[in-house]
Specification:
alpha/beta, 2 domains, five-stranded mixed beta sheet
């Protein structure tokens, strides 16, 4: 695909969750089930009225209450909730828990990307080296490793890295070839380039703002172009895939599309971009959760 080419935008919605459900949404919030518990969390995309009665919302186990702008907010629990509990998706198992940032340790909408990458890795039929930057709690890394890839998982948070390794143990995947590295994403990629290390697959899910382990500042609008340029230098002669996603930033899927197309210029293949969505159980509405762009070698 040449730089700048674009077809229609895609909507990716996972269809085979058992432990997660988007039960309802509306009035700037969403009602979700994570395993045995239900929660209400903010959802700016939900500009409509809820389909379920208020009683269903009031019966939630916990509610995340946002505070003033710039404040993380806090959880309010209507009944006791375990500190953490296990969930699963296909053969993957992972711990979830309410965090101060309203997340619970897994982004259910990403399941479509996990399946897509797994299929490409298995279809390659040979060694696949994957780099997961901003890898969070490691579910995507486990999915790729279970499909046969060697994975390098990078995140700036020691606490999150410990969580990811606990997920690996919970899944019974301790023997899979995953390198767990606490580091600043850009600095790590630059060092890998100097070492001559190369990767077939790239997973990038950068935050809007963050800090590296040594205080390095990440601002996605300023830092992402340099990171993608550095990643380009790590490409194998026959790369397999790139996945780039973003949340809560002043950009569109078109922005990510052109950035990934530039990174992969000269390698053929195809860029697809759009939104990762969840299908609401109550009314069937699609709720947008993230924008993405992904490249694959397959035409």
């Amino acid at each position: 695909m040449t730089k700048g080419q674009l077809s229609t935008l895609a909507l990716l919605a996972p269809t085979d969750w058992a432990d997660y459900e988007l039960l309802d949404s509306g009035r700037g919030a969403k009602l979700e089930r994570f395993g045995r518990y239900t929660f209400v969390r903010p959802e700016p995309e939900a500009l409509w009225r809820p389909a379920l009665p208020e009683e269903r919302w009031h019966a939630a186990d916990g509610v995340f209450q946002p505070k003033a702008e710039g404040d993380n907010g806090r959880w309010k629990f209507n009944r006791p909730v375990e500190p953490r509990w296990p969930m699963s998706y296909r053969d993957l198992k992972f711990w979830v828990q309410p965090t101060p940032f309203r997340h619970l340790g897994v982004f259910p909408e990403h399941a479509s990307q996990w399946v897509w990458a797994e299929e490409l890795i298995r279809a390659r039929g040979g060694p696949v080296n994957v780099l997961n930057l901003f890898g969070y709690t490691g579910v995507f890394s486990l999915a790729c490793a279970a499909a046969g890839a060697r994975v390098t998982h990078v995140d700036a948070s020691k606490k999150t890295m410990a969580w990811a390794r606990e997920n690996q143990a919970l899944s019974g995947m301790e023997r899979l070839p995953i390198r767990w590295i606490v580091d600043d994403a850009l600095k790590f990629v630059q060092r890998e380039a100097r070492r001559g290390v190369r990767y077939d697959g790239f997973l990038l899910d950068p935050p809007k703002y963050g800090r590296g382990p040594n205080g390095e500042v990440w601002r996605v609008q300023e830092s992402l172009p340099a990171l993608l340029d550095a990643c380009r230098r790590l490409l194998t002669p026959e790369p397999l895939f790139v996945v780039l996603s973003a949340y809560a930033i002043k950009a569109s899927a078109l922005s990510l599309h052109h950035a990934v197309a530039e990174m992969m210029a000269g390698h053929g293949g195809k860029v697809v971009s759009g939104e990762m969505v969840l299908t609401e159980k109550s009314g069937g509405r699609l709720v947008s959760c993230s924008i993405f762009a992904r490249w694959s070698a397959a035409p």
